[in-house]
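Slide 14.
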Amino acid sequence: MTGQRSLSLLLVLIAVSRGQHLHTGGEWEPGPCDDSEVRRLREQVTALERALGEAHARTYALLQERTARTAPLPQPPRSAPAFGSQGEYADCAEAFNAGRVRSGYYRVHPRSAPDAFTAYCDMSDGGGWTVLQRRTDGSVDFNRAWKEYKDGFGNFKADNSEYWLGNEKIHQLTIQGDYILKVDLTDWDGEQRDAQYQRFRVADEKAKYQLTFGAYSGGTAGDALSGGFHPETRWWADLNGMSFSTRDRDGDRYEEGQCAREDTAGWWFNRCHGANLNGVYHLGGPYSAGTDNGIVWYTWRGWWYSYRAARMKVRPAAFQPAEAT
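Slide 15: predicted structure.
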């Protein structure tokens, strides 16, 4: 009602400011009006216009408040996907078959694992590879204790970062079925080679995360995990059936010392190794040290060459590569 009265008064003042007046019959007729009166009336019109604007703003604010009170309450965010639903996968092969064909980090939940975890999925090279380990720049220290190797460590955010997925997670992954291990290596000249093994598996903690694997099934880097093809080397360097060792828990067969401490890495050591992808990141390739403690794959460049990049990844043996589907 206040707004209507102000509007009526405004119309009257505008009429007067134009030099008009009202007869009692309601008809408009022109009348005399000096300049000072016009200025006064115009000032009143301006004040009324300002008051009307403020009233309009208050009315709009009240309407907004009423709308907010009567609007439905916002719904809580949906919970994270449950196991087996979209967003969690038994491994990266399952993610690939679900249409997630871009390399990157995914939530992985092996069937017997209590919880999901983050792992990098390599969707190139046929797709479906779960990356267990990655060395790229020496930014992560791999001389760690038993619990750290059990749980995993490193950078799980950057696409090309260094990490160890964790022995318990690797165990939960590889007991799901028959897995192939592929090792990707890059030397300091940029050359790339690989090695593949059938039936890769890691046992549980009670068995000291024992490593077992089948035949060397291909690649150009050679069979360093088995110690190569020379019987004398295989006797002390074959890693098949070896327990995991760290600086604080010795599981090797080296009676004169402790491989994990000498080579400053957690790994499956025999007496000690022909392959150690968790070794010291020596720049440039060839290195000198008290022991062969570099990132070693001896069947390609020997024990005294440390690679620029290394990666361990697994995929179910029954998985069909992208180009074959």
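Speaker note: DSSP finds eight helices and 18 strands in the chain.
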